[in-house]
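Write out structure tokens for Integral membrane protein.
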Amino acid sequence: MNTTTADTTTATTGPVTLKTALLLDAAVTGANGLAYVAGAAVLDSLLGPSPTHFVLIGAFLAVCATILAVTGTRRPIPRGWATFAAEVNVAWAIGSVAVVAFGWLDLTTTGEVWTLMQAALVAVFATLQLTALRRTP
């Protein structure tokens, strides 16, 4: 009984699993992508870029979310695809900072803050995924 209890406690309070990291990333990325597509006409005045930019970025994010969800539900999770997901997240975070730093896309101040907050969140997803990959045999 003690062994089962200890195993359950470790499993529920331990580090984030690769599956959890990928599926959480898929959910957030998918929701963001759908919001960009659905709200493109409104977001341009709030954040800066044109509605076309939001539709294109939203469509890209929807594709990424689908890949993340499919990867996260495979048994076993394909290491190559999981690594690729983490690498795309790293590139997205760096690219987001570059967009703000170099003034690309004519972001508003709110758009700059939003972009940097997203970069931070995406970096967290990359860190969770890379950490889980290192722990996964």
